[in-house]
Design goal:
By secondary structure, the chain is mainly alpha-helical. The protein has 5 helices and no strands. Helix 3 packs antiparallel against helix 5.
Length: about 110
């Protein structure tokens, strides 16, 4: 799982603006689904992102700079990026109990 950051958010915004004229909540939610955010967090990100002067003329780097200069967006991104996946497992019987990626060396 990739950790969420302002760079990722700027890339998502850039991709949406490159293919559409504006960022909608449904597209925003779909693009962020890889990071498994709850609806409330996506809504906050969406609202704060829409406060920025984004346009299809901006580069991904310019969008990243706008995001990093926004205190409220930086705080939300920091909270999301700091979350660690929680894994609860129950195992009985034979076999492996692996959380995450299993690496086998031969």
């Amino acid at each position: 799982m990739e950790f969420f950051s302002g760079v990722i958010l700027s890339g998502v915004c850039y991709d949406i603006l490159k293919h559409q004229s504006s960022i909608t909540i449904s597209v925003f939610k779909k693009k962020l689904s890889k990071w498994l955010m709850d609806d409330e967090t996506v809504q906050k990100l969406f609202e704060e992102t829409n406060k920025l002067p984004l346009s299809d003329e901006l580069s991904e780097k310019a969008i990243e700079k706008l995001i990093s200069n926004s205190d409220s967006l930086s705080e939300i991104v920091k909270l999301i990026g700091g979350r660690q996946p929680q894994i609860n497992q129950v195992h009985s019987g034979s076999g492996d109990n692996v959380a995450g990626h299993k690496i086998i060396y031969k």
